């Protein structure tokens, strides 16, 4: 690089790219389905659309920077003080803020790998260091190894549950044992982006857990269960000093007026939205059972997606999916993550998995 031009910080070149899920391939005479970004396949509820449309007329004005009505609605919904909340531009915005607020350059952030690909991006962008702890063979977090990876430089540990892209969740018993071993000055982020899809014994009660620990923050999102991925709204639940630090570093006006309105309307329509989540969970059960019947050893799936460990067959699997009109999310040389989508899309996945297992 020419030294007489402006140079970004030396580690900016180390930031891994974020690979967004591909859109469906357009093929004449064939509907294609996007199963590559863990989105909600249902169209928005009319009431949510109306609320967003009503807010469109205020686009010449800045949003309510304090997002007062959204904070109040979240506080009421989860029975937490508004001072324990922080809203952001998606929960990925919260991950950025957490690392920025808690890490000095060179500080370490421990997380499972493979997990959400934005973690190392946010960590490197903040000048902090990523410490990746391999997931177990069944895709679960190796929580003991994660505790063992904590050093004097560790400021944050990220627990992604359910884990994107492998699928399993930690149990409350496992999380409690883990928290008992993590030093109290280390912040534990429980990324619950898919929490509404969890159906298991001994499931984590995030709110009870944050109440019991001064170093626990939950991150959640309207993108998945509530179907607002395009509007970018996430929220953190944390002890007041942590929530205040997140709000302090937040992007001013980061959550738009339409996004705030749609999120509030979604909370008001929560029963209808959670019925859809139930339907997606039923589809997930059908898909996982079908895959296992076809001989696939897929990990427990607690989110709205299924993980296929494929190694060097990953690209072939993704190409075969594309031929059938479903777009999956390949991770080169590792595997593919496939979202639970429309019934027809899920049928095609089962068709693909049946054919591919035999090929
Ligand atoms: N956490 C996890 C584990 C995710 O998979 C995602 C989305 N892929 C996010 C956070 C971020 O979602 P959003 O920014 O849309 O809230």
Low-confidence stretches: none
Count of discrete alpha- or pi-helical segments spanning 4 or more residues = 12
The quaternary organization reads as single chain
**Could you give the count of β-strands?**
12
The bound ligands are: 4'-deoxy-4'-aminopyridoxal-5'-phosphate
Choose one word for the global shape.
globular
* Structural domain tally: 2
Modified residues (N6-(pyridoxal phosphate)lysine): 224
Protein name: Aromatic amino acid aminotransferase
Pfam families: Aminotran_1_2 (PF00155)
GO molecular function: aromatic-amino-acid transaminase activity; histidinol-phosphate transaminase activity; pyridoxal phosphate binding
Report on the architecture of this protein.
- The structure is a single chain.
- Helices cover 38% and strands 15% of the residues.
- By secondary structure, it is α/β, with parallel strands linked by helices.
- The chain has a 7-stranded mixed β-sheet with strand order 2-8-7-6-5-3-4, sandwiched between helices.
- The radius of gyration is 20 Å and the shape is globular.
- The structure holds 4'-deoxy-4'-aminopyridoxal-5'-phosphate.
- 4'-deoxy-4'-aminopyridoxal-5'-phosphate binds next to α3.
- It catalyses: an aromatic L-alpha-amino acid + 2-oxoglutarate = an aromatic oxo-acid + L-glutamate.
- It comes from Nocardioides luti.
